[in-house]
Amino acid sequence: MNQGRVLNWNPDRFFGFIRNDNEREADVFCHGSALPRGVDELKPGDRVSFDTEISKRTGKMQATNVRVLP
């Protein structure tokens, strides 16, 4: 499980990017489908935890199982 901060979120396109606290890792793409039920968007600066996987469509790293931290 990784942790980081939301860099940006585009509510019209339902995606954004997360800056991983592990500075050796690149910023991670986050699609709205990775958010828990009832969460419609993230806000820049939100602290989140997340898993990562390689996207079958793009071959790039993306966030999964995103949770907003208190």
TrEMBL record:
Question: What Pfam families does the record tag this protein with?
Answer: CSD
Superkingdom, natural source: Bacteria
Keyword terms, alphabetized: Cytoplasm
Give GO MF terms, alphabetically.
Answer: nucleic acid binding
Q: What is the lineage of its organism?
A: Bacteria, Pseudomonadati, Pseudomonadota, Alphaproteobacteria, Hyphomicrobiales
- The name of this protein is CSD domain-containing protein
- Residues covered by the CSD domain: 1-68
Where does it reside? Answer: Cytoplasm
Primary localization: cytoplasm
Cellular component GO terms, alphabetical: cytosol
Originating organism: Bradyrhizobium jicamae
Q: Does the keyword Cytoplasm apply?
A: yes
